[in-house]
Amino acid sequence: MKHLFKPAVFKSILGLLLLLLLVKVAWFVVGVLWLPTSGVEHVAQKGGKALYYRVKLTPNEVAAPTVKATKTAVKKSSGNINSIKLLAIYNASDVTVVTVEHKAKTKVLSRGDAIDGFVLEGAGNNFATFSKASKTYKVLLLKGKATGIEATAKPAPTKAPQKPKVKTAKGEVTDAGDHKVIDRSLLDHYAQNMDDIYKNIGIGEVRNGKDLAGFRITFVRKDSPFAKLDIRRDDVIKSINGQEINSYNAAFGVYKNIKDIDNLTLVIQRGKEEMELEYEIN
Length: 282
Fold this sequence. Notes:
By secondary structure, the protein is an alpha+beta fold. The protein has five helices and 16 strands. Helix content is 21%, strand content 34%.
């Protein structure tokens, strides 16, 4: 019987197997003692730097806010002729005076005076004319509801009309006991210069509902001729020479005929008392 393997060959194969076994054991020991458990590839990913960088384009500046385009609102010119109501007119050859209401306040205007940018130019029987921005306007006398009507444009004057110089009032008011004596020169001055009246005395409306019931004295300038007439603040003028002062036309009627008056009797309401003030024009 023949042997399949020779003893020398069998020894060679056995020695080779033992050598391989020893190499594997040695490699296993080296791996346990020195090599990381996570592997080389994992270390490379963990310890490596990122391949991208954050870049701040404006490191020292705050980003500019987004500006939206806005439309600039066009301001409309202030003032409306329809807001002016004409309450009364006094129109003579040498003077024009009107009473108007604007923003719930009454005001007396002479020719050349302005209200809300509208300048009083003149007046007729039932209207007053104003000018503004090279245009003229007509305001009708109040009858239930005032209206403003724009007239045709006119060229702007080269020079603004000058007001006549106000003359110093002359004349005195003297006490005669039961009445006061007024120099006619003083009365004539105020008849021709109505603006001077409102520099020395304030007058406001007194109404009973919608009806005009008289005029209240709102202030009297100290040391003025009016202060010597014994008129006081908060007095309400009820009548003059028997004429009830319950409308602007009645008040202007007295003013218009003041030059022809020799005596004045004022009925006033002072607090709860009604009293008469007597004046003599001399």
